[in-house]
């Protein structure tokens, strides 16, 4: 009886301690899961649960974006597409070698940018175009259908001059949109692309202005 009276309390204490320990571990595990929570997973922080670097399927763009970024991409994509269409015409219609070279440079730069911005919109869960279409959104520098038809019909020296004049206006419109993005955008990647567009197209405007003096 002496043994039983002292053994039973010890067993009870041991069991209680085990339950308390289990409860503590459960609480700790639950807190970690809650902290990770939606939008705060290990992959978000760049590591897996084992501490190894996590592979992210969309390293860019960042999760930070706003309506200005969305509008910039939705408007700049068709703006770029028109510039690429103009540049392709130069392959067979331009007479001046520098015009052909510049047109190829424009196409090489803007095609990948179109793909980049399309990818952003997909990642952001946004449509490629505004719900009401582009009719309610001003895209400065865009050519009219009549302008495009005239360019398609032009050849040789006439094409060269028309191409330079229209592309200068087109580029100025893109720069205006790029400046708006830099002032209002939240996505670091979109703002950086806007800076790149502004710098590149300003340099091309200056080149085309010099071209027009000798065409």
Task: Please give the structural blueprint.
Layout: H1 2-36, H2 67-93, H3 97-124, H4 145-153, H5 156-184, H6 188-214
Helix pairs in contact: 2-3, 2-5, 3-6, 4-5, 5-6
Features:
215 residues, mainly alpha, Ferritin, 2 domains, 6 helices, 72% helix, disordered N terminus, DUF305_CopM-like, signal, Lipoprotein
Q: What is the name of the CATH architecture of the largest domain? A: Up-down Bundle
CATH hierarchy class name of the largest domain: Mainly Alpha
> Could you please say which CATH topology of the largest domain applies here?
Ferritin
Per DSSP E runs of 2 or more residues, the count of β-strands stands at 0
Number of helical runs?
6
What fraction of residues sit in β-strands? under 5%
Radius of gyration: 30 Å
What's the assembly state of these chains? single chain
**Low-confidence segments, ≥5 residues, pLDDT <50?**
1-59
- Structural domain tally: 2
Instruction: Note the main sheet.
Output: none
Overall geometry comes to elongated
- The helix-strand sequence is HHHHHH
Q: What separation lies between the terminal Cα atoms?
A: 116 Å
Output mean pLDDT. 78
Tell me the structural class. Answer: mainly alpha
Helical percent range?
over 70%
**CATH superfamily label of the largest domain:** Ferritin, core subunit, four-helix bundle
Q: Can you walk me through this structure?
A:
- The chain is mainly alpha-helical and 215 residues long.
- The protein has two domains: 1-57, no CATH class; 67-214, Ferritin, core subunit, four-helix bundle (Ferritin), CATH 1.20.1260.
- 72% of the residues lie in helices and 0% in strands.
- The chain has six helices and no strands.
- Helix 2 packs antiparallel against helix 5 (156-184) and helix 4 runs antiparallel to helix 5.
- The protein is elongated and about 50 Å long.
- Mean pLDDT is 78; it is low at 1-59.
- Residues 69-212 form the DUF305 domain.
- It comes from Planobispora rosea.
């Amino acid at each position: 009886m002496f043994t039983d009276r002292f053994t039973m309390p010890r067993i009870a204490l041991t069991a209680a301690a085990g339950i308390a320990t289990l409860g503590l571990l459960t609480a700790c595990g639950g807190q970690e899961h809650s902290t990770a929570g939606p939008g705060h997973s290990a992959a978000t922080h760049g590591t897996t649960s084992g501490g190894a670097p996590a592979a992210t399927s969309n390293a860019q763009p960042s999760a930070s974006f706003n309506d200005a970024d969305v509008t910039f991409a939705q408007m700049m994509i068709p703006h770029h597409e028109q510039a690429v269409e103009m540049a392709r015409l130069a392959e067979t219609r331009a007479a001046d070698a520098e015009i052909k070279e510049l047109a190829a440079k424009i196409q090489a730069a803007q095609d990948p940018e179109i793909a980049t911005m399309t990818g952003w919109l997909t990642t952001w869960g946004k449509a490629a175009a505004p719900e009401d279409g582009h009719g309610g959104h001003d895209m400065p520098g865009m050519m009219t259908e009549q302008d495009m038809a005239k360019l398609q019909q032009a050849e040789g020296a006439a094409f060269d001059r028309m191409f330079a004049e229209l592309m200068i206006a087109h580029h100025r419109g893109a720069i205006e949109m790029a400046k708006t993005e830099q002032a209002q955008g939240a996505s670091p990647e979109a703002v950086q692309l806007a800076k790149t567009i502004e710098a590149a197209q300003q340099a091309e405007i200056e080149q085309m202005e010099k071209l027009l003096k000798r065409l």
